[in-house]
């Protein structure tokens, strides 16, 4: 079954000059999502008066301009890769949509840049949601990038900060904790798996 989903900008007149928009062109492309494959029919519109082209924002939220695989594939494969700790080849097989092991690996690498950027963009929202927090700090090893240090609030389960580090050294942990302190203040409690480097870094950053 070939499902078609239509996309167009949600406006009918030009926000700049108020003129009526006319169809600019029709673009059809195959998009593979985690659950299904569909044909995206995108109809950008053009201002009749000044020629400005308006594209659908919705489609750019769903899939990157030159990618066949929808953004949810990146999200799902990154959860399997970094949270469940599975290999790229296993994930490729499991997704059942023809994606290659290499592509899964590339999406995982892209995700390590994109997700922190989304996190930073939403920092004010996060700050306003976190008042009192209990800090939990953990390191996750990654075969390609050595180590990702994750600082989480136990109460809300929000990730406060995550950073790629070369190792779980005292200095690295301290600099990660300093970022958290600057943004969220002192925690009301600290938990960790109690490795000595983490404990001493936490004591120095949050004395008392
Ligand atoms: Zn216009």
UniProtKB/TrEMBL annotation:
Descriptive protein name: MULE transposase, conserved domain protein
């Amino acid at each position: 079954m070939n499902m078609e989903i239509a996309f167009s900008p949600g406006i009918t007149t030009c926000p700049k000059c108020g003129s009526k928009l006319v169809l600019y062109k029709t673009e059809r492309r195959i998009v593979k999502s985690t659950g299904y494959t569909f044909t995206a029919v995108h109809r950008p519109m053009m201002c009749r008066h000044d020629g400005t082209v308006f594209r659908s924002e919705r489609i750019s939220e769903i899939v990157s301009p030159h990618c066949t695989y929808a953004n949810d594939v990146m999200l799902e494969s990154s959860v399997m890769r970094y949270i469940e700790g599975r290999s790229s080849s296993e994930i490729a097989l499991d997704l059942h949509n023809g994606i290659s092991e290499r592509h899964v690996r590339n999406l995982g690498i892209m995700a390590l840049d994109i997700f922190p950027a989304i996190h930073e963009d939403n920092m004010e929202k996060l700050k306003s949601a976190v008042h009192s927090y209990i800090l939990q700090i953990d390191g996750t090893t990654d075969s390609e990038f050595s180590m990702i240090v994750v600082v989480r609030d136990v109460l809300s389960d929000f990730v406060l900060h995550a950073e790629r580090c070369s190792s779980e050294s005292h200095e690295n942990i301290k600099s990660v904790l300093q970022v958290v302190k600057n943004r969220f203040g002192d925690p009301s409690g600290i938990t960790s798996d109690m490795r000595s480097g983490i404990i001493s870094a936490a004591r120095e950053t949050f004395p008392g």
